[in-house]
Every structure is written in structure tokens, then in C-alpha cells.
Amino acid sequence: MKANYSLILLFFLSACFAFEGEQKVDLATEMALLRQEIDELAQSKTCLDAEEWNFTALGSKPCGGPWEYIAYPKSINVPEFLAKVKRFNELQEQDNIQNNRFSDCMYVSPPKSVICQEGKPVFVYE
Length: 126
Description:
alpha+beta; two-stranded antiparallel ribbon; signal; coiled coil
């Protein structure tokens, strides 16, 4: 009798892991594609004038808050870019919940500003 319960439990757990695995792959694939698009847009221009750049929070730590900040040129389609960032953040938050992710829970301070160095945006912190 005990063996039957073990088989039922094993079947149930394997079904859960199989379902979670499919969701995990779907989220990971979409997040990877979005991250690539976000990076390509953010890096699509040379940083020559810091006034032409802004930044936004990127990622979602399991404890809350972003993983990092990303600089982007104001000359791109900003609403489209920010929509991609928002979707990425939402997917990462969903992935954190579904897969019981954890992190260091350290607060990531936003930069004070952006400057240009050798054609690349660089964050300035206090």
C-alpha cells in the first residue's frame, strides 16, 4: 500500500516539474529575446552629449527593486523601449515567483546622472 502512495506522489511531482519546466523555458526565451532587443536599442547610438541620454531601472529582484539601471539615448523610440523594459521586468518578476528565486536583497541605488566617455554612457553616482 505504501508503494502505491509513493508512485502517486512521484507521478504528481514529475507532472508539476514538467509543467514548471515548460513555463520556465517560455519565460526564459521571451526574457532573453527582450533583453537582446533592449540592449540593442540602448547601444544603438554613440554617446556624444550626456543631455541626450536618460536611464531606467532594469530587472526585478525577488526581494523587490531592480537588478540594475540601463542608459538609453533619448533619440530612439522611447515609449517602445520603455514598454520592452516594463515587459522584461514583469516577466522576471513572474519568473521569480514561479521558480522561488532569491537574491541578495541589496538595494541598487539609481545613478545621479549619465556622462559620455569614449562614446559610451557611464553612470555617475554620488
